[in-house]
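Sample entry (334 residues):
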Amino acid sequence: MHPESKFSMSVPHRTDSLMDTIFERCEKNAPNFGIQRTCFKTLLRKNLEKYLGCELSESTDFDDARNFLEQIQADDLFLAAACAAGNERAWWEFDHQHRGYLERVARHLAKSELDALEVIDSVYVELYGTRVVDGQRLSKFSTYGGRGSLRGWLRTVVWHSLVDLHRRSHDEVSLDEMTENIGEGMAHANFAGDLPGGEDEMIDEINRSKYIGATLKALRDAFASLDDHEKLLLLYYHVENLKLREIARLVENESSPLRGWFQRKSRTNETGGGRTHESTIMRWLEKSYTKVLQIFKNELELNHKLSHEEIRICLDLASHDIDGSGIFNNLMAN
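Predicted structure, serialized as tokens:
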């Protein structure tokens, strides 16, 4: 190849080659994170284009692109991407590297030990992600762009969680206080719901009546199919309202029925005599949710002969119309 040929390559091609180099270095440092080359390069490109303020093209200044990519915290971004994808080895590494730092920051910023523990719980839930949109779990890690260190970003996440905790504690205003501040009419208006009526509401009620029986039976069958330890895990979290950290401490207790199950199931041996972190509990909760959802859909399709559209209606009923605690009370009946 002619010595000047590399300079005749297009800017996108040269940038792509640089991204390949970054990926290969990250993969060499963390070969068990399960991140695909194309996925990580897509992430790098998205963050680069956000920095540039435009799509990568031939008119892009390559020096700007190169400077950004050379300064990005690539290993931190690689770890965050793997955690967002739910990779167990990445989560183990995250706990090992950053758990202690999270605790120190939370205790430094919070006004009490209880608040610090509450915030750590909340941060782990955010980082792992409990909301699913279009089949994708939304992890807070997906907002980390790699321009600063992961620890600096985590400190900001902890701070925002503390602010939210403070706001929630001040939002719990009694009806008497609300009446005193804004007047009785406005206070009662805050608690009044819209009266049902109209064609859409009627259709919704018809759908509910038609599918509620199948929905409830499918839920009961799905929960009944869980292993005892999966039921216990969901019962602790959703019915007894234990915090992630409280369940983690139960797992560490040698007399706990959960302990042996976690030791057998954990491929990374995270519970083998060591500390169990909130992220471990979140991962096993998600696996239980996935199992319930699959059995729920299969029950509706195979036994109730429902179409995909009808199953979607049943999912909406299970997600919104049926009280959450009522759903998980099925665990106590099995």
